[in-house]
Amino acid sequence: MSKHLERDLDNLQRDILAQASSVEDAIHKAIRSLQGRDAALAQQVIDGDSEIDEEENHVEEECLKILALHQPVAVDLRRISAALMINVDLERMADLAEDIAERALCLARPPFIPIPEKLQRMTDLTTSMVHQSLDAFVNMDAHLARRVCRLDDDVDNYNNAIIEELIKAMQESPEMVAPGLSLFSATRHLERIADHATNIAENVIYLVEGEIVRHRPSAVIAAS
Description:
Layout: H1 3-35, H2 39-70, H3 74-107, H4 118-139, H5 142-172, H6 177-209, H7 217-222
Helix pairs in contact: 1-2, 1-3, 1-4, 2-3, 3-6, 4-5, 4-6, 5-6
């Protein structure tokens, strides 16, 4: 690898990690605004989404520039391909955080539906998946990436349990239907964030091993 390519790849990784930090912050704030019925914090997340969009554009431009200037091959080419896909997943996570914040604005007004206790555990697990998937990318750690992929089922289980709890609350109290649907949507958006963390982990496996494991759960388990 040439020194110029190495320098550009290092800069690209720093840009992705800076974007990831912004996205993680948006997710944390969106959930806090939801749980605390904090409309001001929710609006802060919504207003900050355009900055993350700009970060996505910058990372994509840098990836294309590296491809054009250096014409990388083998693992370097995989690294840039993975970076392009991770960039998209991060931006979509930010969009989902914005969606959660929009639901938080609705839930900040009465009638107030109780926030299920399981939502905090689902949030902790989801944000852990996001963080671990990015650690796997930085450290080229396929083993950690596979662990992230396996955690997605646990998030799905929390999502299903929360939805059942919300349906019961809406059936018992018709006035809870509107806030219940908002919370239902927010929970679904959180579950989708976990899906994107899984996508990042799958891209790390591709980056390290050259194997595409998306839509192949047996490939994730077999080598874990």
